[in-house]
Design a protein that fits this description.
By secondary structure, the protein is an alpha+beta fold. A six-stranded mixed sheet has the order 6-7-8-3-9-10, with helices on both faces. It folds into two domains: 219 residues, P-loop containing nucleotide triphosphate hydrolases (Rossmann fold), CATH 3.40.50; 116 residues, OB fold (Dihydrolipoamide Acetyltransferase, E2P) (Beta Barrel). The chain contains ten helices and 21 strands.
């Protein structure tokens, strides 16, 4: 288990990470997400030993590694830039960390290439600069796991690859995490990757850990408005009031024709109602148990889905439903409709 306790990192007057505490279980695939400048890569580099915390501690299986040199830590890192040696062959690139660690190399390179889906016969003796971007990233991954680190740190490793290749490689990373039973700590700006790959997601903002949990919890039960909007497409209704009486929560908004009542015990004092795009539905008739009158403003076709944008009275915001093509394509600009959703899909959050 790796544990970060009250970690703080300052760069002069800038506080990049402030009082950060979390722990990661062995074998987990944990993703760090957050806006640019939230401290994700700084945290990763402190775990790797490339940066030293201003205060706090990092422990691995109860051993304090806070001040341990990078080469003494059981960690390995994969960067977005790949950092292969262009004058070396694939085999030489992968053997390099094993030679530095004094590890036996017989047959290991072929085994590693197989693990990252590269044929050793075809690729082992190629020069690194003869490879495509995806092939170079696979070699960088093979090199990173060559000496069996306990923790693999991945800093935007797929960021410079095209979308199709990203999808393929993130599946392979998930499979490799299970196969090796190695802890993966993954930094990404791709929320899709985080939601698909992670055992848990840690959301950072301005150097603080705002929320952590399983992907479905982060997506369906965000702690505040920032998380709700950051972790997925969100329609936001600002509330005028939220009154709790005898176990019933009644929320009102100028956009709603009548208050909405919730009888489940939601332990939150909400400022907003949030409806995910994919939970929303637009139609001339009210077919869900919550809905507001609206006018179709625009429709955008994306493959077999349609994004339906509507205007709601008493609100300056646009609201969007992500619908299947058969339903969405029947709507036209100017249609009078209901923007609607099922009450159980309502997300209530504070500021």
């Amino acid at each position: 288990m790796i544990q970060l306790r009250n970690i703080r990192k300052e760069f002069g007057d800038l506080v990049a990470v402030e009082d950060l505490t979390f722990e990661i279980e062995p074998g987990e695939l944990v993703t760090l997400v957050g806006p640019s400048g939230s401290g994700k890569s700084t945290v990763l580099n402190m775990i790797a030993g490339h940066l030293e915390p201003t205060s706090g501690s990092i422990q691995l299986d109860e051993t304090d590694i806070t001040h341990m040199r990078p080469q003494e830590r059981p960690t390995s890192m994969v960067f977005q830039s790949w950092a292969l040696f262009p004058h070396m062959t694939v085999r030489e690139n992968i053997r390099f960390p094993m030679e530095a660690q004094g590890m036996p190399k017989d047959g290991r390179v072929d085994e590693l290439l197989d693990q990252v889906e590269l044929d050793p016969v075809e690729y082992a003796d190629k020069q690194a600069d003869e490879l495509s971007g995806g092939e170079q990233q696979r070699v960088a991954l093979a090199r990173a796991i060559a000496y069996d680190p306990e923790i693999l740190l991945l800093d935007e490793p797929l960021g410079s690859l095209d979308y199709v290749l990203q999808k393929q490689l993130r599946r392979e990373l998930s499979d490799l995490n299970e196969e090796l039973d190695m802890t993966f700590i993954y930094v990404t700006h791709s929320l899709e990757s985080a939601l698909l790959m992670s055992d848990r997601i840690f959301v950072l903002r301005e150097g603080d850990l705002v929320q952590s949990g399983e992907p479905i919890d982060i997506y369906k039960r965000p702690r505040n408005r920032f998380i709700a909007e950051f972790m997925g497409d969100a329609n936001i209704f600002e509330l005028d009031s939220a009154v709790r009486t005898n176990g019933t929560l009644e929320v009102s908004s100028s956009a709603f024709e009548a208050p909405i009542e919730f009888t489940d015990a939601r332990d939150v004092a909400p400022d907003y109602v949030v409806v995910r795009y994919d939970d929303a539905f637009v139609a001339p008739d009210l077919e869900r148990n919550v809905g507001v009158e609206a006018t179709v403003h625009n429709t955008l076709v994306k493959g077999n889905r349609v994004l339906v944008e509507v205007d709601v009275p008493n609100s300056e915001d646009e609201y969007i439903a992500d619908m299947n093509y058969e339903k969405g394509a029947t709507l036209s600009n100017g249609d009078s409709v209901y923007f609607q959703w099922d009450k159980e899909d309502t997300i209530l959050v504070p500021e």
